[in-house]
Amino acid sequence: MRKKLLIAAVALILAGGTVAYIQRHEITLAMVEKVASERMQNPMNGLDDGLHVGLCGTGSPFPDPDRAAPCTLVIAGKDMFLFDAGSAAAKQIATMGFSTGQLKGVFITHFHSDHIDGLGEVLMTRWAQHTQGQKLTVHGPSGIAEVMNGFETAYRQDTGYRTEHHGVATMPPELAGADVNQFAVQKGSYTTVVQQPDLLIEAFAVNHQPINPAVGYRINYKGRTVVLSGDTTSDVQVKDAARNADLLLHEALSPELVARLQETAINNNRSKLAKIFSDIPNYHATPLDVAVLAQEAEVGHVVLSHIVPPLPLAPLREIFLGKAPDVFKGPFRIGEDGDFISLPAGSKEVIYSQR
Q1: pLDDT tens digits, residue range 130-169?
Q2: Which of 72, 153, 210, 316 is the most buried (most CB within 10 A)?
Q3: Is 70 exposed, middle or buried (0-12, 13-18, 19+ CB in 10 A)?
Q4: 152 and 27 belong to one structural domain
Q5: For residue range 323-341, what is the model confidence (pLDDT) as tens digits?
Q6: Burial of 229 from C-beta contacts in 10 A (0-12 / 13-18 / 19+)
């Protein structure tokens, strides 16, 4: 009897497997439809009211399979903004489950290529996916108008193709591209970029010489504060902006690791590359610099981004951080692509997750 039951069970399993194989196309298509449907839901519906920070790109100009170029999402309540738009920004936003169509504004810190070279795709996909009839605004310091004129020229033919193909109702030409909000910054002061009843976004000058202008941003929503340093050395205005902030997202470079790369370039007769390696430490901050600054500013949490150089091996992370975690007494971590940090309104809580 037991043997017969076993044979019957095996037969059922084989039959089920046969049916699954025969219907594999239908099953696969049903799975695709289910996943696509989930991806088309509004991901912000499930978020608590507050500030949310999504790291869609924590890398730098160095090739890095684990990190995309600079790209940071900030969600304040139900409004989503993008800070810098390095290459693959649009794809990274989608990978995190969000849509460029939801963007209310883009904020640029400076005009190094790794911070703007994904902007064209962000503009195009936002135009294609936005359904509320509002043109995107790109905010940036003096010079952003020239940058945007370049993107408009580069994408003019593509814009025309898409309107002709999909129709004016679907791809209205007047909503293509973006409006530009160009502002000036002065060292030691703050420039209000966006002000709403519960939201304030301010820009401040940072030291990324010889790149000028270069700015950071301070975002305050219902009493929660996030500061984005942009690219900079350890700077007194970053410290001022970050005073008592819930979260400081700061760029970081390891001089020790970059020096090893410079030495390797010299040994391989790559003199031009060696010169570049010798130059870049003088306009970036070290993790220790950031730790000292954040401790003095009484910051709540620190996350490092714009990581230079790449860290493909686990021991490199310890070398990169050095003594910084010992200096800063709060949570201090290296940001990763896909990190999602939530700061609920009316709370002191900072919640980390991965998307």
Answers
A1: 999 999 999 999 999 999 999 999 999 999 999 999 999 9
A2: 72
A3: buried
A4: no
A5: 999 999 999 999 999 999 9
A6: buried
Q: Is the domain of 316 the same as that of 207?
A: yes
Query: What CA–CA distance (Å, rounded) separates 20 from 282?
Result: 61
19: containing domain: 1-38
Domain count of the fold of the chain: 2
**Same domain, yes or no: 6 and 107:** no
pLDDT of residue 43: 79
- Residue 302's CB is within 10 A of a number of other CB atoms, namely 27
Q: Are residues 111 and 152 in the same domain?
A: yes
126 close to 171: Cβ distance less than 8 angstroms: no
Q: What is the dihedral of CA 147, 204, 221, 81, to 10 degrees?
A: 10
Tell me: do 98 and 188 sit in the same domain.
yes
Here the CATH number for the domain that contains residue 126 is 3.60.15.10
pLDDT (mean) for 178-198 = 97
Q: Is the separation of the CB atoms in 246 and 300 below 8 Å?
A: yes
Sign of CA dihedral 178, 46, 194, 208: negative
Q: What is the chain's mean pLDDT, rounded?
A: 93
- Pair 247, 293 in one domain: yes
Q: Supply 246's token pair.
A: 């819930």
pTM score, two decimals? 0.91
DSSP assigned state of 68: P
> Do 211 and 152 have their domain in common?
yes
Q: What is the reported pLDDT for 13?
A: 59
Whether 179 and 135 have beta carbons less than 8 Å apart is answered as yes
